[in-house]
Amino acid sequence: MGLLTGVLLLPLAPLRGTTWLADRLAAYAEAQVDDEHAVRRLLLEAEAALDAGELSEDEYDRVEDELLDRLDRIRSNAAVEGTR
Fold first, then answer.
1. What is the pTM of this model?
2. Domain check: are 39 and 64 in the same one?
3. Higher pLDDT among residues 26 and 50, named by residue
4. Please, are residues 58 and 50 in contact by the beta-carbon 8 Å criterion?
5. In sequence order, what are the residues at sequence separation of 6 or more whose Cβ sits closer than 8 angstroms to the Cβ of residue 32?
6. 26 shares a domain with 42
7. pLDDT in tens, 6-35
8. Are residues 40 and 10 in the same domain?
9. What angle do CA 4, 16, 35 make, to 5 degrees?
């Protein structure tokens, strides 16, 4: 990048930084969705919230079903990738 190009593009630096940060956050969020340990931790947190009275039994059942479905998808994706 030349000096003139650098000077002309300087006002866009915050936008490029924001875009870079958004890309990093999206990658981190995607990794968390596909992380078996993160899902297990969320299951434990939901159970603790149920025990503390922060979640009703119905709310806990919905959260548990969603998290167990995610866990099944993660495991089935890992099995498919393991056969490649």
1. 0.61
2. yes
3. 50
4. no
5. 38
6. no
7. 666 667 666 676 777 788 888 887 777 778
8. no
9. 150
| Domain shared by 48 and 68, yes or no | yes
The position carrying tokens 């149920």 is 50
Q: Which two tokens stand for residue 56?
A: 């009703």
The dihedral of CA 54, 58, 61, 62: what is its sign? negative
Is the dihedral angle over the CA atoms 34, 81, 77, 41 positive or is it negative?
Answer: negative
Please indicate, yes or no, whether residues 38 and 59 belong to a single structural domain of this protein: yes
> What gap in Å lies between CA 27 and CA 29, rounded to an integer?
5
Q: Is residue 57 located within the same domain as residue 74? A: yes
**How many Å separate Cα 52 from the centre of its chain?**
25
User: What letters, b where the CB count within 10 A reaches 16 and e where it falls short, cover 11-45?
Assistant: eeeeeeeeeeeeeeeeeeeeeeeeeeeebeebbee
- Residues of the domain holding 3: 1-33
- Count structural domains, the chain: 2
Residues 6 or more apart in contact with residue 78 via CB below 8 angstroms: 36
